[in-house]
Amino acid sequence: MVPRLLAALLLLAASACAHNPDTSYARIAIAPDRIELRLRYDLLTLRKIAEIDPDQDLRVTRDELQRAAPEIDRFLRSRVHLEIDGQPVTLPDAAPLEWPREAGDAIEARDWHSAAALVTVPFSIPLPRPAREVSVTFQFFDLFGSRHTVLGVFEYRGQTEEVLFTQEEPDYLYDTAYAGPEAAPMLTEPRPEPPLFANLRRFVKLGVEHIFLGYDHICFLLALLVVSRFRELVKIVTSFTVAHSITLIVAALGIARLPSRWVECAIALTIVYVAVENLWRTQLADRWKLTFVFGLIHGFGFAGVLSELGLPTAGRVRCLLAFNVGVEIGQLAIVALAFPFILLLGKWRYSTAIVSVAIGLFGLGWFLERAFGLGFMPV
Questions:
Q1: Least buried of 3, 99, 132, 339, by fewest C-beta within 10 Å?
Q2: Does this model's pTM top 0.90?
């Protein structure tokens, strides 16, 4: 029975490798004479739309992306639907695609699913008169997958409203009459409560999904759990929570940011270190201190999910806190599920060594892949 439990834990770490958080971004800025729609997708997503690497050299250049622009434009115009005051509006041709600011002349395959590979597709829709209602619908989830999420923000008269688009809720109607004090004279009925709680609930869900799909974070937690008693576990979880919350807030608010590749490599090394430490240290009462330091690194990784949302500070803080609550819920669920199995495995002499070696190998593989652009690990 014990070997089966061990296999189940290893399967949990491995199966998470098959998924990655899949997110794109949308900003809808409404002005009296036009609507500016800016859609942002990483190269891994754009690869589902068009052939962006025709020579198959696992790097995308500016020229290759521009050659694929017409196909990307056609796809988005057929799958992103806009209605203004109840009338369907055909999107015009997109403006030239905007290459990621931090990228060079080419983006390697290892960065296609990172913030460094976000390409902006801008549309400008002229208005004959100011719009009262603007509805946006995304109908590409059949191609991008049920896990794909669009983090969006409507902007009007200095007011912003954050929206989460999913396969279950692919559309949203924005009424400019409810945009704020400047629009008050336009009101013809009592103003409803803003969809704050609905948005917060969605961001909590996104945080939960991120921790469950963040295979490296799961492996880090398992490496900590495998040698922990309950009292030590409380200290470890608390220090990890406090640490990654600090850097999550700092990074998401733009106070401090690190290159995503450095962060991902560092996260992989934290997994390797903790796994190796399990093999040679027997006294781990002070591990919560090390966990705090490593938690700071993992916080930058969590922040990567929201770093490109482009929200104003107030909106970003609100969504950030909800996302962090979701991360904590997911983390506690993993601890609650795994700890009973860890207790059972503790009765087997070699369980700690075998689990630690397996997790350490995963961490080493991810480090080599992320540092040197290799592609042998599951994604």
A1: 3
A2: no
